[in-house]
Structure formats: C-alpha cells, structure tokens
Amino acid sequence: MINQYEVPAYIEDNIPALKKALHQFPAVFHIYDTVTCLSEYTDKQLREQNFQVADKCLRLAAKLYERGNDVVKGAITRIFLPAVCSIPLADAVSRIRMYSLIPDVLYNLYIQQQLISNGNR
Predict the structure, then answer these.
(1) How many domains is the chain partitioned into structurally?
(2) N or C terminus of the chain: which is more exposed, having fewer CB within 10 Å?
(3) Residue 16 covered by a domain
C-alpha cells in the first residue's frame, strides 16, 4: 500500500518532468500539494493535446488510487478528479477521446464527478 509520504517519489519515478516542480515545496508532507502538481501537469498535457503523456498521468493517478491508503485515495478523489473534470470538452470527439483515456479504476468516479460538476454549473 502506498502512503502519502511515498507519493512524491512515486510520481517522480513515473513522470521525471515533475521532479523540479515537486521539489519547490515540501511535498512529502503535503499530499494535496503533490496531487495538485500532478493534476496541473495532466491538465496542461490534455489542453495541449499531448495525449500520450496525459494517458501516462491518468494511469499513474489510477495506480495511486488503487494502491494508495485512504489519504492517497482521498487526494485523488478530492483534488485530481475535479481538476480533470474541469477541462472543457469542446465537442463529441474531444469527449470520446477523454473518456477513452480514463482508466477503468477511475472511470466511475470520473463520471460521478462529471455529474456533480455539471449540476453546479
């Protein structure tokens, strides 16, 4: 089981581009800052249509959710998913592309978050 103190190193190992960003704050003690960093990077990749890197980020978030303790799962649910759900999907093609990238373990949570987000708009 991955705990909140292991998450920064786990992210760095899988996405080396985030190493510098994760070291700008004491992320090892702030799981929400760490997950925010991952979600902002994922958002940027999706907006730039860099789907290969975005897919890697989404799969990493799914692994963290699947293997993480309750604190890690909570951070993915409360920080990562709402950030990903806030990305505007301009048309049906974009929506289908996005849905195809969401890993199975996060898919139901993503849909639930979409419903909550759309209900508040």
Answers:
(1) 1
(2) C
(3) yes
The domain of 96 spans 7-119
Give per-residue pLDDT as tens, 37-74: 999 999 999 988 899 999 999 999 999 999 999 999 99
Enter the tokens of residue 94.
């974009």
CA-closest candidate to residue 65, choices 55, 52, 80, 54: 80
Q: Is the pTM of this model over 0.85?
A: yes
Residue 2 placed within a domain: no
Is residue 37 within 8 Å of residue 12, measured between CB atoms? Answer: no
Bridge partners, 68 (sequence order): 2
Residue 95, token pair as written in the block: 């929506």
Residue 84 · residue 40 · CB < 8 Å: no
Asked if the structure places residue 1 within a domain, the reply is no
Question: Are 64 and 72 contacting, i.e. CB atoms less than 8 angstroms apart?
Answer: yes
Q: Three-class SS of residue 102?
A: coil
Neighbours of 86 (CB within 10 A): 12
pLDDT of residue 118: 67
